[in-house]
Amino acid sequence: MDNKKKILVIEDEATLQKALNDILSQEGYDVLSALDGVSGLDLALKENPDLILLDIILPKLDGFEVLKKLKEENSQIPIIILTNLSDINDIQKALDLGATTYLVKADFHLDDVLKKIKETLGM
User: Fold this and answer.
1) For every one of its 123 residues, what pLDDT tens digit does the chain have, with 9 covering 90 and above?
2) Is residue 75 part of a domain?
3) Which terminus in the chain has less CB density within 10 A, N or C?
4) pTM of the predicted model over 0.85
């Protein structure tokens, strides 16, 4: 039996979220998604995905807070940040809070995201 990896996409930009969901599903991942930090955090704690794609600028609860709360829960879920924030201080803050890696939206293609996911999941 094939054990599908579960990926949670927490992204408030609906078009990008749909594009990520589509490409991840095509790649054979089980995809969950949330449009804000609160529901994203709830899903993360309930579903315990294999990996999280997380935006920083989110309604209700920003990505930094989501990272902080997951860390408080001792979550070991690898988290890839996808954001428009390219400031080195933001990048450092996200990494300090436990993000595995950081991609700036302006600098990546969906293929780059897939590559990062596979690297992170050790596939």
Assistant:
1) 357 999 999 999 999 999 999 999 999 999 999 999 999 999 999 999 999 999 999 999 999 999 999 999 988 999 999 998 889 999 999 999 999 999 998 888 888 899 999 999 998
2) yes
3) N
4) yes
